[in-house]
Amino acid sequence: MLELGKNLREIRKNKALSAAELSQKSGVARSLISQLESGKRQSTSVDTLYRLAQALEVPIASLLTEEPLKPPSSGSSIKYKQSDKPPFFFKEQDLAYLSAIQKAKDAGVSPELLDELIDVVIRIKGK
Question: Which domains does the chain have, with CATH numbers?
Answer without folding.
Answer: 4-90 (1.10.260.40)
